[in-house]
Structure formats: C-alpha cells, structure tokens
Amino acid sequence: MANANNAAIVEISQTANKFRSSIVLQYDNKYIDVKSILGLFTTLLTTSNYDLHVHGPDAEEAKAAMAEVFQKHGLTINSIQD
Asked: SUPFAM superfamilies, per this entry (predicted)?
C-alpha cells in the first residue's frame, strides 16, 4: 500500500507542477501546496477527505488534470470554486 501511495504522491506533484496556477489541497483546517512532495506525504497518509483549491491563469486545465490523476489513484477530491 505504501508504494501505491508513493506513486500517487509523485504523480500528483508532477502533474501540479505542469501548471502556473496555485493548487492547494485542504483537509480539516490544513492547507497543503500540492506542488510540494513533502506536504503530500503527510496529507495523503493521514486523511481521505480532500478539497482542491486552484487559482491562476490555467486553473480550469489544472482542475481537470488534477481530478484525473486523483481519480486514477482512487482518491476523491472536491473541486472548490472560490
């Protein structure tokens, strides 16, 4: 299971880094920059309820790509419109 999580973390971070937009994962009252592999390691190992906040010039494309990669790894996200 750890290897599956590691693969998800790496792919999520790599996908996020393709975009100029800010991509933030929220769980409880914590916010993690999805482009940060370290932040993802602590986030994806401790919770399963995620809200995704995306802001920037390519936000729509980033949301679609992030939803796809999260779904690929069996993770559920709520895309938040701010």
From this structure: HPr-like
The CATH number assigned to the domain holding 62 equals 3.30.1340.10
Using CA atoms, how far residue 60 sits from 2, 20, 29, 56, 75, in Å, is: 31, 11, 24, 9, 19
Q: Could you list the pLDDT tens digit for every one of the 82 residues in the chain?
A: 455 588 899 999 999 999 999 999 998 888 999 999 988 888 776 667 789 999 999 999 999 999 999 999 888 889 886 6
Alpha-carbon span 82 to 39, nearest angstrom? 22
